[in-house]
Amino acid sequence: MIMEDGFFHADPHLGNLFVEPSGRIALIDFGMVGEVREELPDQLSRFLLALTRTGPSGHFWSSP
């Protein structure tokens, strides 16, 4: 949701989550939501990807 739409559910708890018969998780009660800056999803994706990349010495590296 954050990566596609730029907002997030700001009150996730068991009362706001349901599991549909298909197994898909459904959220309800969007009375509290937050927005993220337009560039944040891309920055977050690159950060998470960087966490999976380490050089031979175990230090983080970046490709040119």
From TrEMBL:
Domain Protein kinase: 1-64
A UniProt-annotated Pfam family: ABC1
InterPro entries named among the record's database cross-references: ABC1_dom (IPR004147), Kinase-like_dom_sf (IPR011009), Prot_kinase_dom (IPR000719), UbiB_kinase (IPR050154)
GO molecular function: ATP binding; protein kinase activity
Annotated PROSITE patterns: PROTEIN_KINASE_DOM (PS50011)
Lineage top rank: taxon: Bacteria
Signal sequence region: none
Family classification: Belongs to the protein kinase superfamily. ADCK protein kinase family.
Name by which UniProt lists this protein: Protein kinase domain-containing protein
Species for this entry: Arthrobacter alpinus
Upper taxonomic lineage: Bacteria, Bacillati, Actinomycetota, Actinomycetes, Micrococcales
